[in-house]
Amino acid sequence: MDTRILVTLLIVVVALAGFAYVASEVVEGNPLAIDRWLLLQLRSVADPGTSIGPRWFSRAMLDFTALGGGTVLTLVTVFVSGYLVARRKLALAIFVASSIALGSLLNALLKIAFARARPDIVPHLVEVSSASFPSGHAMNSAMVYLTGAALLASAEPSRRVRTFLITAALVLTLLIGFSRIFLGVHFPTDVLAGWSVGIAWAVAASWVAAILQRRHTIEGAEGTTTSIAR
Description:
By secondary structure, this protein is mainly α. The chain has helices at residues 3-27, 33-41, 55-66, 70-86, 90-114, 136-153, 159-182, 188-214.
């Protein structure tokens, strides 16, 4: 079996195993010790409604969290798909949009299934209304940025460009997830679960895309096939 396939499967299995563990703890109904500890560490001891660090850092967290919102992620998906259409890669553009849409639907279904309440350990620094588990910002940003980056990379012949796209998407995904914890609107385990499923989804999508490209079902870069696990 191709080494890349084994690596891809390993990443997916590990990510889903992490989600399964966290989900089992959530079903028990109580936050993990790490949830309470980390949320409190990010707030002033004298006033839990005040975050630690300088004001510019708090503003940066608000900016990062906005990058994981539904409006921004929808725009990113449209722009990535539009770029691929402009490159005359219509089938790949449809694959990107479809995989991200299905992933977002999965997140909504998981939130309904677990129906975990938002943390009340510290005051929220932004308004939220949906269920807490798994984090939609963490999961959807992982799917949108990593899937988009991986599939854009699959249409790029330059290895340096492909590496940059994947790395930038991963860093952005991690920052968005952390911002949700910093703002007090998610337990750390919500974000961990979101990352786990989102990364597994992105890896699986890039793997399927690579297979379809080898079969010439969707377009890729001339002479290349790329996945996150490559």
